[in-house]
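Margin note: ligand = copper (II) ion.
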Amino acid sequence: MKSGSEARPAFWRSYVFSQDHKVVGLQYALTALVFLLIGFTLVMIMRWQLAHPGLPVPVVGPWLGARAPQGIILPEFYNALTAMHGTIMVFLGIVPLAVGGFGNYLVPLQIGAADMAFPKLNLASYWWYLAGGVLMLASFFLPGGAPQSGWTSYPPLAIVNQGGQTWWLVGMLCLITSSLLGSVNFITTIVQLRAPGLTFSRLPFFVWSQLVTSFLLLLAFPPLEGAAIFQLMDRLAGTSFFLPSGLVVSGRVLHNAGGGNPLLWQHLFWFLAHPEVYVLILPAMGIVAEIIAVNTRKPLFGYRALVHSSVAIGFMSLIVWAHHMFITGMGTTMSSFFQTTTILISIPSVVILTCLFLSLWGASIRFTTPMLFALAFLPMFGIGGLTGLPLGLAPAGLHLHDTYYVVAHFHYIVAPGTIFALFAGVYHWFPKVTGRRMNGPLGWLHFAGTFVCMNLIFMPMFVQGLAGMNRRLYDGGLQYTLDRNVVGLHLLISRAAWVMGIFQVLFIVNVFWSAWRGSRAEENPWEATTLEWASASPPAHGNFASPPIAYRGPYDYSAPGARLDFTPQFARDEI
Amino acid sequence: MRAFLGLPIEASRHAQAVDGLIVGVHWLIVVLAVGFGLFFLYCLARFNRRAHPRARRGGVPAAVAWIVVGGIAVVELWELFFTAIPLWASRVSDFPAPAGATIVRVVAEQFAWNVHYPGADGKFGRTATSLISPENPLGLDRSDPAAQDDVTTINDLEFPLGRPVIVQLSSKDVIHSFSLPEMRVKQDAIPGMMIPVWFYPTVATPNGVQWEINCSQLCGLGHFRMRGFYRSVSADEFARFLREQSPTPRAAIGPHVPGAPAIE
Amino acid sequence: MDVPYTIEPRTDTGLYNAQLGVWLFIASEVMLFGALFSGYALLRTGADAWPSGSRHLAVTLGGVNTFVLIASSIVMALAVRSLRHAQWRRGRRELAITWVLGLVFLVIKAYEYREHVLAGELPSTNNFFAIYYTLTGLHALHVIGGLIVLAYLIGPGASMRRTQPVRFTHRAAGLSIYWQFVDIVWILVFLTVYLL
Ligand code: HEA
Ligand code: HEA
Ligand code: CUA
Ligand SMILES: [Cu+2]
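Resulting structure:
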């Protein structure tokens, strides 16, 4: 340690404003983990209101202030919690962790590059993200409070509502800028900086998933940017892009010019938000595929099919958006088109899942902690994906749209799905990042507890949804006779959520304790084949002592006749 | 399967078809989940490191994967083309003739459902935003001859059995979603638009049971309590209902429900 | 540590990094303006009546601006050509002319806004003006962004010409692609908002 004045510039440049993709990746990952934790905390508060409507929130109640007089959550605050939970989880948690964190750290390593193609843009991308996140969070503390119109921000509600919607929009513009910078960088890096010998057909599936993801971010976000600009104009400049004529809000006639169309927002929003959900899942699939290959000790089943399917998902995801809008009054032609594309896009997902399942056949499975999470991902994503099918068929939506069935559908994909994949990734690449292993038994406990709780949380929501319970209800459906038989489940769900919160402590402890005191990991602790394991752990600035060369495909495990059961990509001959 | 899924009672003609689709797809889900699940568990038991120390390349022939995927695709497309698309078409395109139908307007607002019957003349009276007041939430112009016999209620929708119902939906402020779960009817009410939905009620609301209009779309802080009531009744009862309601609009907000929470 | 392919293209892809980066950026910009124009189309087709652009907007000023911007595009392309031929002084002069033309565009635009505002024609007046202000405003922001980068290339960034002349030319070429794009967007705005 050097003393003050001398150490400072070095510290700033190597840890705060570093252009090293690994530092940026870690900044992204840690920030995103914190946001995930915040998003989860909001849910735990919200779940209190659902389990015990009208009772004061224990523990945190007194800190909620005017949002919850005497600790009793107000409807406005409940809506703010829901909107911010969705927004934080999707835009500030999962995507920054999966793409900004894992992508930034691993893509250059896996393609054998020294850094990203545009290190300065990378740095800027992180700071735009942070700015956007802070702006959105700040809205909780500003007069009017956080946005209350759902993560979907449908106008006219989002426009006539008071509250922090403006901050949401401005924050969103920052995030869009960030992801634009990031995706340009990723695509250029993957296309331009691949190591010699690393052809596209030798890219690890994770890199492919990041490539497709980047294209989605690049092309799908700008329409939301346009929509956000329109909505900002409506809020600040008094325009009527999304406001039709003759609105009467709480008995007062709104004197806007009128002539706008509320559905325009929905089209633009879902044009982004549907691809966005594949942004949430593709990197997760990439992580899971890598971990499955390593821990089954055999090549992935159908590598080409996996790659083609993910590219197909990428293209198709741009033309399915209106399946979120069947109930807005869609005619036969349009609904037939979107039902068909929705069903068609499910097929590449089926291919990917089938390939991953079949990869297990004939394997020699090691039940490491990352592998436990990766394995659990498969049936969890399976359940979430399969329950997307009824939603994709418009008439079924007559019953299921905007019920807890939808909530259960997508949480099965993003929570026990994507979050499990991200946990798996943390456990798997932790030795690369820190040079130390995470604690095994703690990891196992974390897995077991989280797995059980996740299912206790989200399985009952299918029951509630099928019975007809609507989502986004402040009292959890207490008023409706129809929901009488299923409101009781809220208590079970909430308790499971809180218990799951306790299990996350194990993870947090494990991360920090292992980073500090964990057992040392050798260079290639999992005996993996991809290029990131050719660098030191942790890799130095510039990554590789000498630029690696790829001699073979990414998953050369258990080659017949070879002595060891793996041959790294960077090994010229079988070992 | 229907009972297993716990779907509400089917009270309209198309409800059965909707449930048929939901049930059909859930059979697919169950078969796949069980099939893949068993395969998965078998693999975990058979191919873990202890039982199978050295992995074997190859194994499942690619054809198996294609057959599985192809099979799933065929079933999905079958449901799509032979159930879902025709059913949706019949919902949104094949409207019954207005002459033989009960026609009613429902105008949503934060946080209530304004119901507007045309009355004996079958014509809706003129409405204007400038006339909207707490006593006249629809802004109905009672000086219009067509409006003389119009019947309006708040949160109280009734319709007779034995003929189709056409609901013309709109909203005064934000987007709401008009949902009659027992009828398998759900349609967003969007300001600036008048969107018709139709259904053919087949089951009368049993005595002592309360059927409710749900608001399914987040519409503000009172979204959770934007509940209305509806009844599917005999023609006589419906006539009596209209007589009782006309001509002054009711100000009360529906019957009181025991057990509703204190926070409103 | 140096990033490869900033100057020479990679042989198998035939691209240098910034080239690919700029085109990706343009692709995303196309989606942005595509969304805005689709919004415009939807609102206009859905409206009962839509004011005629040529009646309410300053077509002459807009026309002049179109010429100004096209001229600046041409000069920008010439500048890149000069730089490619290592004619630095000439290239710099052409970059400066581009910059001045861009500024002229903005001044005229500002004058136009002023007239509208004084006439009481604000974004909140009706959706026609809402679209007009949003599209031209966003476009003007793009022009401003371009001018800032251009100023950097002429001013403080020019030292790179001596240390890495090829890379400097790449930068100018990238900016030129962007500038042509901004020009095309303007032409579309002029055609669909002012004239149609
Ligand atoms: C990562 C996120 C993600 C993913 C991948 C998906 C995937 C799919 N989604 Fe989902 N969806 C969301 C996130 C996601 N969705 C979100 C967030 C919403 C709600 C937004 C809101 O309103 O707030 C939503 C809402 C939503 C709707 C609108 C519902 C409504 O509001 O009425 C629809 C309708 O079509 C839909 C359909 C689908 C389909 C058909 C798929 C398909 O791609 C799925 C394909 C996958 C499969 C078919 C699985 C195959 C698996 C196997 C074969 C193996 C099975 C094995 C075992 C079970 C052991 N989704
Ligand atoms: C990616 C998206 C994502 C994720 C992961 C989650 C995760 C969870 N969500 Fe949510 N959710 C949404 C996206 C997501 N959600 C969206 C879009 C909505 C709709 C909003 C709307 O209606 O507008 C929604 C709505 C929603 C509702 C419905 C509210 C309503 O309709 O009224 C509920 C109800 O229970 C809920 C619950 C949960 C729970 C219990 C989790 C849990 O699974 C959470 C699990 C989280 C963790 C396990 C945290 C792990 C992190 C750590 C442990 C940090 C470690 C830190 C360090 C090491 C520093 N969510
Ligand atoms: Cu009205 Cu929700
Ligand atoms: Cu979708």
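DSSP finds 16 helices and two strands in chain A.
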